[in-house]
Amino acid sequence: MTDIPQILLNNGQTIPQFGFGVFLVKPEDTQAAVTHALQAGYRHIDTAQMYGNEAEVGAAISRSGLSRGEIFVTTKLDNGAHRPGDARAAFDQSLKALGSDYVDLFLIHWPLPTRYDGDFVSTWNTLEEFYRDGRARSIGVSNFQPHHLRRLHGETDIIPAVNQIEVHPYLTQDEVRAFCTEHQVAVEAWSPLGHGSILGDPVVQSVAKRAGKTPAQVVLRWHIQRGDIVFPKSVTPERIRENIDVFDFELSAADIEDLSALNKNERGGPDPDKF
Ligand code: NDP
Asked: Which ligand 1 atom is nearest residue 48's CA?
């Protein structure tokens, strides 16, 4: 079984550095995809209320033969449920759907600066309740820019354990990552394969050729060696196995530099300051 590195979070909990994402996996395909992933050795699943597939993730886990404690599960607050009462009800619903009395990590999915009068602080205070009562082992944020994080640092008690942001070779996010490192917030890189768009890049292809690995494997390895947490998505069993097979080789410093030099600050997803 693949030995996946564990990252120590700022609250003493650990998270597997490598996992499986289920964004845009249809509910009817989710149980099979997560089952393939667990069989291939994945022990960390990243879902969200918005993905509409928490119940299927929960079903795959409960039928896996693994104990709940062996699997790290993340879910995220729906954008329509930021008000404290709504957030509490939505969190209860997530636990019910996942069939568990806790989640390993619960995130604010987007800061939504143009909604709720820009008040993501009271939303964070509600997540702090879930952390204090033990139903969320860790809490964090997603798509937060340094100025959003600074506000939480100034106005709340608990520092987010992670910030989940879009990162791949076309969007290296040096500024947000440096801010997170300085403040002990672990970085999770969403769309680590640029949603597939970067795999045909000639530089990615030539690094893959040199390493004797596939383009997806060298890009995932680039993330791992930079220290970020990743959870590539695939519904294709061969790719699910291919993607986790990244712990038996190392990229050279020159390979890492070549991939990092592809940065063009190009987002595949929305801008967190406008969305
Ligand atoms: P990824 O970068 O993981 O890319 C997924 C795409 O790449 C799919 O089309 C998949 O196809 C394809 N693919 C996967 N593996 C390979 C491979 N080895 N070779 C060729 N193609 C491959 O994109 P996601 O946007 O899904 O990001 C991953 C996860 O990040 C999400 O599932 C979600 O958990 C999280 N996320 C979080 C967001 C946030 O706002 N917090 C936003 C977006 C994502 P196929 O499935 O057909 O095999």
From this structure: 34
- Reading the block at residue 85, the tokens are 């009462």
pTM value is: 0.98
List pLDDT tens digits, range 133-144: 999 999 999 999
* Ligand 1 pocket, mutate which of 193, 204, 274 (most atoms under 8 A from CB): 193
Return the CATH class of domain 14-196+226-244: alpha beta
Q: If you search the block for the tokens 């069989």, which residue do you land on?
A: 39
Residue 221 and residue 212 in contact, taking contact as beta carbons nearer than 8 Å: no
Residue spans per domain, the chain: 14-196+226-244
161-170 pLDDT, tens digit each: 999 999 999 9
Residues 6+ apart with CB under 8 A from 200: 215
CA dihedral 143, 147, 151, 152 (to 10 degrees): 30
51 counts as catalytic = yes
85 CA from centroid of ligand 1 (Å)? 32
* Confidence class for position 1, pLDDT limits 50, 70, 90: low
